[in-house]
Fold phosphoglucomutase (alpha-D-glucose-1,6-bisphosphate-dependent).
Amino acid sequence: MEPITVETKPIQGQKPGTSGLRKKTRVFKESHFLENYVQSIFDGIGGIEGKTLVLGGDGRHFNDRAAQVILRMAAANGARRVIVGQEALLSTPAASHLIRKRGTDGGLILSASHNPGGPDADFGLKYNTPNGGPAPESVTDKIYAATQGLTRYRILEAQDVDLTSPGLQHLGDMEIEVVDPVADYAMLMEEIFDFDAIRGLLSDGFRLRFDAMHAVTGPYAVEILENRLGAASGSVVNATPSPDFGGGHPDPNPIWARDLVAAMMSDDAPDFGAASDGDGDRNMIMGRGVYVTPSDSLALLAAHAHLAPAYKDGLKGVARSMPTSGAVDRVARSKGIDCYETPTGWKFFGNLLDAGRATLCGEESAGTGSDHVREKDGLWAVLLWLNILAATRKSVAELLREHWTEHGRNYYSRHDYEDVESDKANALIDGLRGKLSQLPGQSFAGLTVEGADEFSYDDPVDGSRASAQGLRISFTGGERVVFRLSGTGTAGATLRVYLEALEIDPDKLAEDPQEALAPVIAAADEIAGIRAQTGRDAPDVIT
Ligand code: G6P
Ligand code: ZN
């Protein structure tokens, strides 16, 4: 088993996006594509000789093949050890936890998150740093630079490694430690939450439904919710990870998790419903007859987190991405804690968490998490909700109503226009950017613009600056619209329009969000000419 050096040339388009490199699976399978990128990660982080890495993924098509290639390349590049999840599976939060718990030099996660999987769908690879979090731009820039100057990669010629059962083995001089992907993570959850209280709730007849969407959280949810907490067997549905996620789209939102929505809106709805995405870092929360927006979920969790043992002393601060609603800001204000506003992308929370400035973070894109790992964490959010429900013995709907009465309601919705031609999407954003400074004082669809700017972020911990992070327009009545292009797509452009309106009138807290937001929706279209410029009559996805 001799390491060989393979000559190669730089491949264009290997620039990591919001969350690592995402491409069509068939692109990842093209000759040298994966190998080039893996070598560039190794080179970009200063080599991996003598280092220990974590490796695992969400089980999508090509996960197993890519893992074998990475193991052979890690061995050829002199890594000391790779800790890999059994069958090369690890949810993203579990990988983050393993990196931290074992003090490794980072890890590689195979996933395109909530994007569909399969030979004609999407694949992805991202490097997480030793703090367990997604690599910040300072690191991904180096990786990208490495892709552009690459002339060779190293790989071992060897048979596949057997990843079917836990244990230690060797590949060349490198150790491979295969671990149960669930065990350490489940142990961490037991440390954070009051499992006895949740067990008590469930044994009193509280019913839940967790939809794993044929993705990686299935085994985690069965072990934690059914085996350890006593939820009725079958509470976790679509629990077996499949390479194409059962032909579905493993994105926990009301469109793609429509079966869960139907179950939660039915006469026989359970008390609590939740879903997670391909790699287990996102979450969707529902109560009987109600959907909780991610922004409201973050705010409500921040308000009640002290009910869980790990947060009993209160939160050091909270953080949200810029397009996320201001609901959590209102909680932070009432608690007298700091609230940070970051660009979209979990990696921007890393410094705040590491520095102890924020304990809880969240994004409108269905991500919520805390300083227990450095990724967002779907099952963690589900367990925090269950802990709160167990401690208060109130329903999800009651908790929401009380929250809005106390803090006001930030009506919120995101409208996505998918697969728009990139030229058109860029033209729309450029056009809007060009006229931002003229907007204040003007009225659109009856709303008057108060302020308009392009968001940039100065990291308070390391002073780094991220610019061009979304165009935001606020109106005098407390409404807001944000325009951004997605950084996670693999084809064309996705225009995201984030809409928000604050309501504090107690008689107006129970409206349909699309109706409550109608004036903002109309103003957004008038300002940006969405329909005219994209040729679309309506968004593809409304969350
Ligand atoms: C991933 C990232 C999130 C981000 C989301 C949406 O899930 O981990 O941090 O909010 O993608 O990103 P996008 O650029 O597609 O709006
Ligand atoms: Zn994900």
Remarks:
- The domain at 409-542 is CATH 3.30.310.50 (TATA-Binding Protein).
- The two ends are 52 Å apart (CA to CA).
- The chain has three domains: 3-181, 185-407, 409-542.
- The first helix runs from residue 25 to 28.
